[in-house]
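re: ur msg from earlier - yeah i can do the flavin-adenine dinucleotide complex, just paste it... oh wait u already did. ok heres what im feeding in:
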Amino acid sequence: MIKTGQQHTESLRDGRQIFLDGALVSDVTTHPAYRGAVASVARMFDFQSAPENRELMTFETETGTRANKIWQLPKSYEELKARRAGLEAWTELHAGFLGRAPDHVASCIAGMYMGLEVFEAYDPARAKALADYYRYARDNDLYLTYVIINPQADRSKSAAQQQDPYLSAGIVDRDAGGITVRGAKMLATGGIMANEVFVTCIQPLQPGDEKYALSFAIPMNTKGLKILSRKSYEAANPSVFDNPLSSRFDENDAVLFFDDVKVPWDRVFAVDSIDMVAKQFHATPAHVYQNYQAQIRLSVKLKFLLAIARRTTEINGTTGFPQVRETLGQLSAEVASVEAFVNAMEAKGTQRGPYFVPDRNMLYAAQTLSQQLYGRVLNTLRELAGGGMIMLPSSVQDYNNPEVAKLIGKTQQSPAANAEEKVKFYKLAWDAVGSEFASRHAQYEMFYSGASFVVKGHAFRTYDWDAAKGILDKMLDSYSLADELAPARAAE
Ligand SMILES: Cc1cc2nc3c(=O)[nH]c(=O)nc-3n(C[C@H](O)[C@H](O)[C@H](O)COP(=O)(O)OP(=O)(O)OC[C@H]3O[C@@H](n4cnc5c(N)ncnc54)[C@H](O)[C@@H]3O)c2cc1C
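and the outut:
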C-alpha cells in the first residue's frame, strides 16, 4: 500500500493520548501545536503516492505490490544508490528538519529484517514476530518512531539500580497473551504523528537489568500508552512567514509512559535477553541502515544551510570580500565532506548474504565528525549574517500598519533583494540558525545517534587498526639500531 497524505492524516485520528500543557489533545491533526508538522508529513505521503514519483519512491515487493523504498532491502550497490535517491528526494521536502521522518525507523526495522538469522538463532518465535512485523509495517505504509533510551535520572547507576524500579520501561507481568510493560522511555521524536512506536534499549544493559531487555512495537493509540509532549514551538510560532520552519516542521519529542501496557507476543521481538537486545542493532545491519539514512538526511540539511550562508552574503553584498569567500569555501568543503561520507559508505559497502550493506566504519567516522560539525556550521552562519537575522520586523502584523510597512520598506535594503524578499529570507535564516526550534536542532544533531563518547566508541571499535598498524610496522621494520651501528662496528 502506498498511502496518500490524507490517508495518513486520517490514520492519526485514533484516540491516542497526547498530553500538552496539562490537557489531553483531542485531535493531533487539527491542534495548533501540531497541525503544521502533520501537514508536512502528509505532503511527504502525497509525494510518494504521486504517479510521476512511482519509480523514484517505490519498489515492487516479493508479492508484487508496491511499497515505499524506505522498506527496501537492497541487494546490490546499484539498488542501494537508487534507494538513496528516493530518500534524498523525500528529505528535500523538509530540508532535513524532520529528523525522524518515516524513513529513519523503517531503515532500522528493514536492517533488523536483513539480519533475521540473528533472531532465529535466539528464538524462532520472536524471529517470526519480527519478520511478520516488517511485512505488516511495509505493506500498510506505517510511519514508525522509536524510543530506545531509558530516561535520564542517575546515569551512574544501571536501570535496575534507579530509585524507582519502573522509571525505565520494564516488564511487570507476562501471560499467554503477551507481556505487560510499565515505565518510561525517552524521546519519541515524531511520536505525536507516527502510527506506531518501536520500543527497546540501545544503551548497554547490566546483569540484573533483564526486565528492561525488551524489544517490541505497538500502535501509538495502545491502551495505557501516554505521550508526554514537550513544549510546542509550532504553537508559539503559528505564522509561516515569521517562522517558516518552526510553524511547519516541529516534529516534537515526547516522553512515553507505559502505564501497564499489554503487548501481544506477535509484537515482541526480544525479551529478557540483554545480549539479544544489543545484537538486534549491532549483529544485524539495523544500526548501520538507520544511521546511514540519518547521514543522507544530514547531507541534505547541510546543503540547505550552505545555501543560506551563500544567500546571506549576497543579501549583504559581502560575497566579493576575500575573507567571506574563504569562509564560504571552508563551509562548502565541510558540507561536501558529509556527502563524501555517504558515497564512501556505499562504495565500501559489502554483501551480507543476499543484502548489500553500507560500510560501518565510514558511518561511524561520519557520525563522529558531523556531531561536531553541525554547531560549527550554525556558528559560521551567525558570523556571516551579523545583525541581519535580528534587524527584522517584529511579526507579519507590522505589514498591516501602513506607516510601519513603509518604514520596513525603507530600512530593509539590499543589493540583491527587495525589502520583502530580504525580510522573508532573514526570517527563514533565523528559524534555521537561532530560534528555539533551531536550538533544539543543534541538540538533536549532537545527540540523536547517542552522546559523542558513544559514537566515538563505535568509531574506535570498527576502525581497521590492523591496516593502519601494518603501515607503521613496515616503516619501523625498514630500519634498526643494529643496522645503523653495523658499519661502525664492522670498522672497529
Ligand atoms: C532532540 C532530541 C531528540 C531525540 N529523539 C530521540 C528519539 O526519537 N528516540 C530515542 O530513542 N531517543 C531520542 N533522543 C535521545 C538520544 O538518543 C539521547 O539523548 C542520546 O542517546 C544520549 O543519551 P542521554 O540524553 O541520556 O544523555 P546521557 O547518556 O545522559 O549523556 C549526557 C552527557 O553526560 C555525559 N555522560 C553520560 N554518561 C557517560 C559515561 N558513561 N561516560 C562518560 N560521560 C558520560 C556525557 O558528557 C554525555 O554527553 C533524542 C534526543 C534529543 C536531544
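cool cool. The longest strand covers residues 254-264. ping me if u need the other ligands too
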